[in-house]
């Protein structure tokens, strides 16, 4: 017996020793790879950050000079250069400039500093600015009087498309040096900068400044390329990197051009600088490896095994079971109990990514822990809950009927939402559930397949019980497969022009032959799938966020169309563009639409932004702020699909809409009864009393037209008058003629 125990102990020791050696080798290799990759990433990030900082510094100063160049005081030919120079004088002190001045195209100049100002006309940088009519940044120059290193930025002054001179300013190069010095805080990475002649103009060691021989330290052994190839790239203002071996040190050298200049920023990273510390740390870890494995070898008690099980089978954040434990326990329960009563339910937190981004990971973790506690409290000993990953949870739950299941899920959802009752203004937790009913036909050994079916169902949701849920079926699988194909092709389709903007005219009820506007609608004509209905792709794009790209594409196409009409001398009709709720969560939405109308020189009064009723209910506070900004710009705003949901008349009070757009379904439902007609007529009357125009879409009969006339509706839109059409056809309806 003892002999057997000895053999067993020997085998255990041998296996542990082999495992220890393997782990040591893996750790050593991964440490070296990690250190190398870490230094590479750090070096790349630091040179990119330093470059951005330099370019931001230049861009701020260029923007200042551009703003001055557009000032009528400096583009006025009747004002002398000296008078203009006096106007510029305050900027020298305010922005810490060496000097600032103004020239005509011949080089006659006046500046706040008298040192050889008339020599500007002979400077190559000035000649380049006059020739190219572009912003030019000069090489480094040294003041004959002060000895300061400076560089000059020239910005053209243009009046009536004709260049009449430049505004220029000399900046202290020391400011640039200071920016680069900030990057030289890590002993293992050094930054320097060279000019077009490969002369060092900035270096952490001042003795190398103006030294061409030390440029890039190319006297070392270059690995993987040649010196001539590197210089060729620098001349082309390309970025690149190479390895250099010098004095038993391996360096990773990166170089990149600074925009607007002939300067090249260079970083030199000593790859093995920190390896000494890494080896020391590794030896410490090796010691702990040996200690840990000796403990594992000597101690095989139940407590240790239990701890290992906990690490292997339980989620470290929430404390509930993980996916592996769920699989194991689920197979046991389904094997020993009546299978037909069980459901697999996957629960996800809607827009959890946004919660993490907007409120922080600590808040996200708080939600995950709360959900885990709720699920654990709502399952019995024959049921299981687990956290799969991220915000995905899984339940094995026993219910006799679907109604019983949905009621339990509704109760769970309400308890989860209770986390936010004291802070509901920040966000609302909304859960989505994918459900798969397990039957006797299912092979419980293939539990992963059953879990996958619940996951598929979770991607197709039906609104009910105040949370989203969906049962798995083959139609769901097929629809998700179709959606996946559309998602795989959507970016390429936008690039290749497969998306087309159609226009559906809007008519005045005073004269149904008069077009008073149109709605821009998106259509997808795919060479692979044919003509795809918006019903198939718009909700999908709403869900995956690609609707932002589509909305902005439609908006820009409308701007192009309006610009075309104006340039041809036609008075444009207002065009309405739909805007998704996704825009409410994007900070640059207002900036993007403002940039586009500015780019195409369009007055915002010709564009109407349509927001659906569901957008309003999503987040009223955010919407009020965005609408205020939109109105300040001058856009018209309409509430689309009014009446399609549970509309609140308070919205007409709280939100400053210009137009109320009645939903087609609302029109059909309300005009069928006397009571309905009274309701819709009072809504129109109320809207007009507060100066809101009313348009009705989906008009299909003359009886509807007569009724809408009677109650004072302003405009109509629908197939009775015109279907959505391509731009050329719409322009024919407007009697706009183009060659």
From TrEMBL:
Alphabetical list of InterPro entries matching this protein: Cyclic-di-GMP_PDE-like, dCache_1, EAL_dom, EAL_sf, GGDEF_dom, Nucleotide_cyclase, Rev_trsase/Diguanyl_cyclase, Sensor-like_sf
The keyword Cell membrane appears for this protein: yes
Signal peptide (UniProt feature, chain positions): none
Gene Ontology MF, one: cyclic-guanylate-specific phosphodiesterase activity
Domain GGDEF per the UniProt entry, residue ranges: 340-474
Primary localisation category: membrane
Keywords, alphabetical: Cell membrane, Membrane, Transmembrane, Transmembrane helix
Residue intervals of the EAL domain: 483-738
Location of the protein in the cell: Cell membrane
Segments traversing the membrane: 12-35, 278-299
Membrane topology, from the record: Multi-pass membrane protein
Annotated GO CC locations: plasma membrane
Pfam families tied to this protein: dCache_1, EAL, GGDEF
Protein's UniProt name: Putative signaling protein
Organism: Clostridioides difficile (Peptoclostridium difficile)
